[in-house]
């Protein structure tokens, strides 16, 4: 009996804005030394911010064009585009529809997903299942995109210096060679939904001057989310997906994590008893790019030829909601 139809990652790409914002910018902006804290605690040294006239769809198009070029396929061959973002072009219609038109993806269905910074892995899981379940999907573009600089309160030292902009994308292809997505898991802790987010502009707080005056159209950390949650949940979910597949965690070659805090990554790798070098990081030069950071980290590793056919890979994302998504793939 042959292998089942599955979704293999065959190409990746990323795009960030040209504008570099170093930590020293915030020293001047906030009138205090934030550079030392950022370097020592989260290892962010600089980040990219969009120009005033730059939009998230532009970054997505740039990343996706790289992917198609690397994969050697045309825009017409893409069957589905999934965009994971919580900083969309508009509230409605979807950012994916904007990108579909810009790229002339004439045969692609499209939709957006918003599970905050868990978005890319959730979309990866979803895209893979479209391919597994339905033979009309051969090529699926999955994107994580973030333009949080447009939603920052620059006077808020808790958020202004962490967040940045970028887009990362991968192309899934239908295969039956034993590679592709092996296991996945989604979790949510909705009791934290009102602890961190952008609360203005939706149906609860429609756009108005009052909403602007209250700062609800900007990113807010309402309450500090306990730092122990991410490493505990990440560790548990990774162990569970590996156990379900009958894979030893030690045999996983690459771990791609949400990149808001390097210590969370280190703690999780230590919990798993796996060498920290197996978890590539990109926050140092790019800041925290939310739903884009995992595909960006993958794209950098892929570009450096560090990912080989047959490698086992964990994608572990988490973000506001709180939402968590984990997927185990074989390259």
In which range does the helix fraction lie? 25-40%
Low-confidence stretches: none
SS content category = alpha/beta
Largest sheet, in brief, is: 5 strands, mixed
Rg = 19 Å
Report the order of strands and helices.
Answer: EEHHEHEHEHEEEEHEHEHHHEE
Strand content: 15-25%
- Summed up, the helix count is 10
Distance between the termini: 21 Å
Q: Give the strand order of the largest sheet, numbering strands 1, 2, ... along the chain.
A: 1-7-6-4-5
What would the average pLDDT be, to the nearest integer? 95
Shape: globular
How many strands?
A: 13
Question: How would you describe this structure to a colleague?
Answer:
The chain is α/β, with parallel strands linked by helices. Helix content is 31%, strand content 24%. It is built from 10 helices and 13 strands. The chain has helices spanning 23-30, 35-42, 56-71, 95-103, 119-133, 209-213, 229-245, 262-272, 283-286, 293-303; strands at residues 6-15, 19-22, 46-49, 80-84, 109-113, 139-147, 165-175, 180-188, 196-197, 220-221, 254-257, 312-319, 323-330. A 5-stranded mixed beta sheet has the order 1-7-6-4-5, with helices on both faces. It has a 4-stranded mixed beta sheet with strand order 8-13-12-11, with helices on both faces. Strands 2-3 form a two-stranded antiparallel sheet. β12 and β13 (323-330) form a beta hairpin. The longest helix is centred in the C-terminal third of the chain and has 17 residues, at 229-245. The chain is globular. The relative contact order is 0.19. The model has no long low-confidence stretch (mean pLDDT 95).
